[in-house]
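Give me the fold.
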Amino acid sequence: MVTFGTTYPAPAFKIEEIIKAAKVLPNLGFVFSLQEKWDSYKLVEKANLKNILLKQFVPQKELLNSDKVIAFISHAGANSCAESMYYGKFSIGFPTAKDQPGMAFRLEIMKAGISMG
């Protein structure tokens, strides 16, 4: 599952890296939650990959509670980090602003995830 919050646009270069991963991992599904007004939404839409589901909203907690979700790619916001740890999902953080770099670092320290930023 890939979410980048609702406040700041997901940086295009970070989304492009995730799209590359989806291309080389065609047997894995990627659920993207991005705001339609963002350029990153258009990038994912343009990629048009069969293993990507693109939505403006997904029920994050319900998906994190699913056994089908094996990892959580996010901006490493405080809520996303807390929810991923609560549901026992490994996080891949792409921090973009505010407290996110520190949260991503804390995920690494706790061996609950890695930071890509």
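The radius of gyration is 13 Å.
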